Amino acid sequence: MAFDEQLVEKYLERAMEEFATNPLAVQLMRRLAIEGRELFVQAGMKLLQRQVDFSNEANVNAERMLGHLLLRQDTLLDRLANPEESTRAKATELFRRFQKMDASFDVRLARKLPCRGAWSQPGAFDGGRSGRALDILDETSEGRRLLPILGHLPDSQDPRISARATLFVGKRVQSADWTARQLSRSDPRIRANAVEALWGVKTATAMHLFDECVKDPHNRVAGNALVGLHIGGREDAIERVIEMSNDDLPERRITSAWAMGRLAVDGFGERLTEMVRDDDLNVRGMALRALMLIRKTSPAPLEKRPDEQITLETTIDIPVVQEDLVANIDVRLDGKTFRAR
């Protein structure tokens, strides 16, 4: 049988629909998995991203069968970690589905990242796939079980791998001493991620480290340090975030707006409303995003001056903020996640 993308997707979808009633459905799925491997993986991943009615046992069994067939495919991990295949959020959700079927799936993914030493194992991910894999594992794998496999990656020569691995390892180590060692690195992304990894640690050593990092010349490092201080209960953190919002450098004002949106503290609304009128386009965009995040996390209305009005449903275009100016806009405080992009 000659296969093409549309034909495989059509046959596979039909087999899923008739899984409980047609005895040939399972046979067809297995044949597609063997004879049309690449197209089967592509179509299968697409079908698994659909919402499943878990009250329907036939649907659940069909999805489980499809998942197990996909788990046997050699290219599944490569496609899952390919940033060009889907967004990080979609890839992470799909990974969770596979993890439920195979408890060792995170170990399988971790072993695709470069190993120690100058030479890596055959088939190891490149920088782009490694970065996406680390993002997925950071969201889904708890505890330190992967540290023996990935603990060396913060020292990678690839800056994309090193920066993401610093966040992954640091969040699981949660050590002020470990973070302090990473602060000697020249790459500001590594320093910023090392500081973020320490969020939630409230020891005197950690708080002193946050204090010192507020002085870092790079805005992302300083911004993450201010967030760490606030999480640690420092009352002056809010005042220092607002102080940064008045900095002459636009990238530091951008970071302050990001921090206000992330922390969602009552009282930031008035300053952010002012920043929506900043001379810099990127500052205005980040301030508006921060206002939207605060609105999502707080039931109380935003503060505004009596003589000013701001409507969050406005038709103002929100500009794309340069990634090198600000950390990822994910709010992960109190177990919640918000994404502003």
**Portion in strands:** under 5%
Reading the helices and strands in chain order gives HHHHHHHHHHHHHHHHHHEE
Rg, rounded, reads 23 Å
What is the residue-averaged pLDDT?
Answer: 86
Q: Biggest β-sheet: count, sense, barrel?
A: 2 strands, antiparallel
Number of H/I helices: 18
Estimated structural class:
mainly alpha
How helix-rich are the residues, as a percent range? 55-70%
Q: Terminal Cα separation, in Å?
A: 43 Å
Could you list the spans in which at least 5 consecutive residues all have pLDDT below 50? 301-306, 308-341
Shape: elongated
Order of strands, main sheet, comes to 1-2
Number of DSSP strand runs: 2
Description:
By secondary structure, the chain is an all-alpha fold. Among the domains are: 1-73, no CATH class; 85-116 and 123-173, no CATH class. It has 18 helices and two strands. It has helices at 5-17, 25-35, 37-48, 57-71, 76-80, 88-101, 105-110, 127-140, 147-150, 159-173, 176-182, 188-197, 204-213, 219-231, 237-244, 250-263, 268-275, 281-297, and strands spanning 330-331, 338-339. A two-stranded antiparallel sheet has the order 1-2. A hairpin with a 6-residue loop joins strand 1 (330-331) and strand 2 (338-339). The chain is elongated. The model is unreliable at 301-306 and 308-341 (pLDDT under 50).
